[in-house]
Amino acid sequence: MKRLLITALLCAGATGVFAQSINTDTTATDTVKKHKGFRVRFGHGEGTGEISVNKGRDTVYQHEHKAPGFSFGLTFSRFDIGLATLIDNGSFTLSDKNSFLSYRQWKTSNVGFDVVQFGYRFNSTFKIYVSGGFDWTHIRLRDNITIQRNTPTLSYTVDNIDYSKNRFSSSYLRIPLSFDFRSRDDVRGNKFHFVAGPDIGILLNGRVKQISEENGKQKFNDDYHYTRLRYGAFARVGYGFAGIFAKYYFNDMFENSPDQKGLKNFSFGLTFGF
Questions:
Q1: Is-contact 115 148, C-beta < 8 A?
Q2: Do both 244 and 120 map to the same domain?
Q3: Within this chain, do residues 156 and 52 fall inside the same structural domain, yes or no?
Q4: Pair 161, 95 in one domain
């Protein structure tokens, strides 16, 4: 995961160099506000190219409004960080068959971000784009157990070891289709966003990470019967750079494991970079 985060940061730095767009005709509108100051803001993506200058006692805010057109490029956006929750056949309480997955709620997390994007802008208030990125769910287990690899169904062993960390994780390639409704820029050049759409995930890896005095740090990789192709929906609401998100996956978290039938994943938290 650390290597992927570093790669994403490098992609973010390269965005301004490699990103390209088609049909970039713009029109500008001015907003006058009684205020002194000077501000220049540049960058890649929506809301860039904003310049404010001081004309006597008035500040003129000039906002670029891009014309309809396609866009494609590298990005580092929609960085989600929040809590993950397991829903067992509609209940937030795990059934007896799934009680071994009992987890620490405040240490069970979801992290994800996008690194590439292709979209079409209809006007300054509506855009559709499909993006690609990475998504992790980290379940911090309460019990001293080890989820087993290469087993017919999801299974575990009880260990006589006190783990200081016992984490059961999945990583996915995420491919969301976003419908982005945006307000017009305010006098600061910021806007409200409401983004929603379907999300497809392709399993990259499953992992068990354990830390104990007896064995030190250990990592075990396997698919652990995580669903190879998951599908769900998401929503993001925010203002300017930050907001909140929620994601829910319609199919089960695990496949080919009958005892886990009906166990689903729901995540919510903060998102940055619209």
A1: no
A2: yes
A3: no
A4: yes
- 226 shares a domain with 92: yes
pLDDT tens sequence for the chain (274 residues):
544 444 444 444 444 433 433 343 444 444 444 444 444 433 344 444 444 445 455 555 455 556 789 999 999 999 999 999 999 999 999 999 999 999 999 999 999 999 999 999 999 899 999 999 999 999 999 999 999 999 999 999 999 999 999 999 999 999 999 999 999 988 888 999 999 999 999 999 999 999 999 999 999 999 999 999 999 999 999 999 999 999 999 999 999 999 999 999 999 999 999 8
Beta strands in the chain (DSSP E): 20-21, 26-33, 39-41, 50-55, 58-66, 69-88, 109-123, 126-140, 145-147, 156-158, 165-182, 192-212, 216-222, 229-239, 242-249, 263-272
- Nearest Cα to 266, choosing from 130, 100, 108, 155? 108
Query: Of 7, 3, 1, 173, which is closest to residue 75 (Cα–Cα)?
Result: 7
Query: Which residue, of 50, 66, 82, is where some domain finishes?
Result: 66
Least Cα distance to 170 among 204, 140, 211, 145 occurs for: 204
Q: Which domain holds residue 96?
A: 68-272
Residue 116: CATH number of its domain:
2.40.160
Asked whether residue 56 falls in the same domain as residue 143, the answer is: no
| Nearest C-alpha neighbor of 247 from the set 185, 161, 152, 176 | 176
Q: Is residue 110 assigned to a domain?
A: yes
Length of the chain, please?
274
CA atoms of 272 and 270, how far apart (whole Å): 7
CA 252 vs CA 51, 191, 230, 249, 257: distances in Å: 49, 36, 8, 8, 10
